Amino acid sequence: MSKRAPQAVAPGVLSNGLILLLATACGVSVANLYYAQPLLHEIAGTFHSGPSITALIVTGSQVGYALGLGLLVPIGDMVSRRRLVPAVLGITAVGLVLAAISPNIGTLIAVLVIVGLGSVAAQMLIPLAAELANEANRGTVVGKVMSGLLIGILLARTLAGLVADVAGWRTVYLAAAVLVVVLAIVLFRRLPDEIRPTTHSYPELLASVVALFRTERAIRQRAFYAALAFAAFSVFWTTVAFVLAGPPYHYSETIIGLFGLVGAAGAICANVTGRLADRGHVAQLTTSFAALILVSFGVLYEGRHSLWAMILGIVLLDIGTQGMAVTNQSVIYRLAPQARSRVNSAYMVVNFSGGAIGSAVAGTVYATAKWAGVCALGAGIGALTLLLVVGSRFRSAHVMVSATAADGARS
Known about the structure:
The N and C termini lie far apart (67 Å). The radius of gyration is 21 Å and the shape is globular. The longest helix is centred in the last third of the chain and has 71 residues. It has a single domain, classed as Growth Hormone, Chain: A, CATH 1.20.1250. It is built from 16 helices and no strands. The chain is an all-alpha fold. Helix 4 packs parallel to helix 6 and helix 8 packs antiparallel against helix 13.
């Protein structure tokens, strides 16, 4: 591997090839969190475990991801991502191999925490893309990179189902480990080797993440919106394999995995959302996506006996969730330009904590109240999200009116 001197990286140096690489890397990294979702029914059969315990497989990876977001992602503000990201991907590869050889479900849940920890490489690369983009097209660039991430989520489910049908679920994790190692090598060769200021010690860096969360209202607000949206997303995807494997569908892992492709609308939506956010339509986008999440669960409830309702509900849920994510990130990446990794860390820890809670609760709800309970839970989360969004817009409008009236009185 050739050695290069670190260089200052200025905004606007992103080539189309580098954007494509970042998008691909994000997709491959985050896919590791989602391979298990269409395989839960098969894994439950292997270890003779019930839905509530098996669902903790998803929760374990999300808990690991949240830990990585808090402990590893901030390091991107002090260490070159060219060196940091391949090292973190190495952690992921180790976890994936251990997952493939797990002797029981407890071990599998534990090692998937390691996989989740290392999968935060994606959240180190998104701030890098935002940093390298120009101010005028930052939302568009983030949207393109996020499209890669979302496609990774979609293909993870589909490919996992196909591979598991042919060679078993353990092979899915072995193949993923090989893919991650290849990605680490390519990124080390292609990423710019930035000069990163080291003005903070590691404890100071972590403390500054907390400080950013406390002082930046936009981060707190957007993080809570994201946590609720991702909780709803996780509630659905953690339980849908059990529904599709049972009556009236009786689908195989391959067919269940193919349902991931139905969410492609969410990935397509990411590019459009980024452009609209750049044009100042953030409030309207946020409200629309929150409403879609709420509506989607009403449609998904009908999916208990209607394939077309299930497909339509997945489309609406994925557009709502992924559109909300891109809108949120277009807002937070305009804050604190020298601390984008820490901004992303503060935001994403809350986001994935919501996802972990959603997946953990979903398994228990499905075990006790089946699909009706799952859809009621998801709709309730969607309604709460919409209520908070509308309430925030109302308060902002009230403050603006009050400020205008005060200015008029002074004049």
